[in-house]
Amino acid sequence: MLYYSTNHTAARATLREAVVRGLAEDRGLYMPEVIKQLPASFWDEIADLTFQEVAYRVADAFFGEDVSAEDLRRIVYDTLSFDTPLVRVEDNIYALELFHGPTLAFKDVGARFMARLLQYFIKADKRTNEAVNVLVATSGDTGSAVANGFLGVEGIHVYVLYPKGKVSPIQECQFTTLGRNITAVEVDGVFDDCQRLVKSAFMDADLNAHMRLTSANSINVARFLPQAFYYFWAYAQLRKARVVGGLSSDSNLTAADSNLVVAVPSGNFGNICSALFGHVMGLPITRFIAANNANDVFYNYLQTGIYTPQPSLPTIANAMDVGDPSNFARILDLYSREDVQQRLNQRGISQPLPSLGGVMGGSFIYGATYSDEQIADTMRDCYARTAYVLDPHGACGYRALKEQLQQGEVGIFLETAHPAKFKNTVDNILHLDLPIPEKLQAFMRGQKQSIPLSNKFDDFKAFLLSQ
Ligand SMILES: *Cc1c(COP(=O)(O)O)cnc(C)c1O
């Protein structure tokens, strides 16, 4: 399968090229040329399959032309060494808990998959056994997911750049204590400096001659598409529990309506975008809600049809503090495709997004935006009534369902991180002393190792050249 760029000027790329490059040469995001529909037999069987098998069938639709079945199955099964259970919070509202992986956040899924796929391509490349070096800049969560996803993966070395003193101690220990093929670089500067150093390194001729460099940022197709796996698994779990009925295979398989509403706490919109791909592949979801904190660029776009990027605002749901979501271009591109429009038309969805300059079109994608006070109130209210501890990100999704779910609908919101990752915030709001899960404690017991550097590119370059 080939991948095109959302800017439509770069040449089409193979999966391998798209994964190694991350971003297309014209700075667009890669999109698969074909989005396969899953066969009727899959929908007949889904309630009897394991998470790993459901994920493998979805992965086969994305990557089956480019990776052998045996290798793809191994990559998927290795990636999903943990569950993403659907937990009933109250009545018709369920949490899809994505925090049971190594770093207790949903980014583990994409990062683990990408590490294994990259390793597969390196091994398959007989011309060279030279190591690949992954550079990643982080403000906290991405670094830990990528570092742990790649930990111990042969042939790959990861350099995590993070701003000194600007990452919480719990986050910092998750990528500075690992050792092995992970090097933490502590930059005397802010996150933007880290990102600039990484970008400059990719463009530097001397460095590229010295070592093979690649990026693992969240727009990479190998991190982004695998996130669709757990939406299918959420649906499978509802089918197993008979909360929603099956799709009848003789009708158009997408016509059956499960009355399922999915609320996704969103920042760069990668997570929700992978769900939208799942929907195009046939996942019976009635509508989506993109739940935002005070960073309301997408919400305003849905109201007005006008997209106006803003500087990001700091909030207590800080992994969603994004003022110009990078996957917005993917969402626009997805719904401008003729193949996608045709399929959605068959399902009675004529206008998934507001036309530019138009008024709110959405009977399909909705928005929500919440202040820190509203997030905190929601956490307190949910805890008091149900004893379920929401993290500040999941709280946005939960509240969106509470406000927007209609009679007879079933709502799923994504719990994108374990509340203990934001222990100070959650303890203060709920007056709790949340226990720290053993997985996090293990990181905290480790020895911190980092390379201190200035924010000057010359220093970073000299360091990489010495490696
Ligand atoms: C990254 C992240 C998000 C935002 O996900 P996007 O794919 O960028 O929309 C939400 N919650 C948590 C905890 C995250 O780490």
Search tags:
2 domains, five-stranded parallel sheet, 467 residues, binds pyridoxal-5'-phosphate, alpha/beta, 20 helices, Rossmann fold
Describe this structure in words.
- The chain is an alpha/beta fold and 467 residues long.
- The protein folds into 2 domains: 83-104 and 223-429, 3-Layer(aba) Sandwich (Rossmann fold); 107-219 and 444-465, 3-Layer(aba) Sandwich (Rossmann fold), CATH 3.40.50.1100.
- Helix content is 42%, strand content 14%.
- A 6-stranded mixed beta sheet has the order 3-4-12-9-10-11, with helices on both faces. A 5-stranded parallel beta sheet has the order 8-5-6-7-13, sandwiched between helices. Strands 1-2 form a two-stranded antiparallel ribbon.
- α3 crosses α11.
- The radius of gyration is 21 Å and the shape is globular.
- It starts with a strand and ends with a helix.
- The model is unreliable at 248-256 and 356-362 (pLDDT under 50).
- Residues 105, 107, 141, 265-271, 319-320, 393, 416-417 line the site of pyridoxal-5'-phosphate.
